[in-house]
Amino acid sequence: MHRRLGTICIVIAGLVVALAIVASIYVSLAYGPVAIRQVPGIDKRQSPQALIFTPVSAAAPASAIIIFPANLVAPSEYGQLAQTLAQRTGQPVVVAAPKFRLEAFAPDIAALERYYPKVTRWTFIGHSAGAAAACKSSSDPGVRAPVRIILLAGYCRRSTEQPSLAILAIGDPFIPFGRHRQAGATTMGLQTSDHFFPVSKHSHAAAYDRTVDLLTAWISRS
Fold first, then answer.
1. What's the pLDDT tens digit per position in 132-173?
2. pTM of the prediction?
3. CA dist., res. 81 & res. 79, Å (int)
4. To 5 degrees, how large is the angle CA 123–CA 125–CA 127?
């Protein structure tokens, strides 16, 4: 009996290790780092916690942006979005680099804020599962400046964490649309249509030109 139980435990452990190896190979092949085309006027830096894109003209920025990636997606996948936002808004953009590429291991907010300690207003952008990290980080007691939350094909898990803007996919089965409509109306006091912008696919919400246009217009006017 004990021998059989031991054999079962060994088999289960072997399966877990095999799955971990397969998952790591899948991540490295499907979501590996991509080359980031340099945009004129934007300084790019990298640290273990983040990719940082700073407009050369922004010597002492008052506002800045943090992007929280989707699970299993390399931070470099958001490089083009980050650089375009930095170029158009004049604000620095920090792309968080969670350990194991999982939102549950997103860097501590203090580690991200330290890149721009004089910022007086942050915009947190969370894509897919990264939305949960953005929402959670916004209510972190260590946050030194007011935060606005923008969600790309994602949602806040707690009713107390409400987004300022939601950009969602049409017919996205992962998103409870009603929660966004309610949160958008109660948070800003504006019409739902000002907060509900459809894009065409959950996994690519951060990649569309229309998404960048919407983000730029909203961040610049707010």
1. 899 888 888 878 888 888 888 777 777 666 777 777 655 555
2. 0.75
3. 5
4. 175
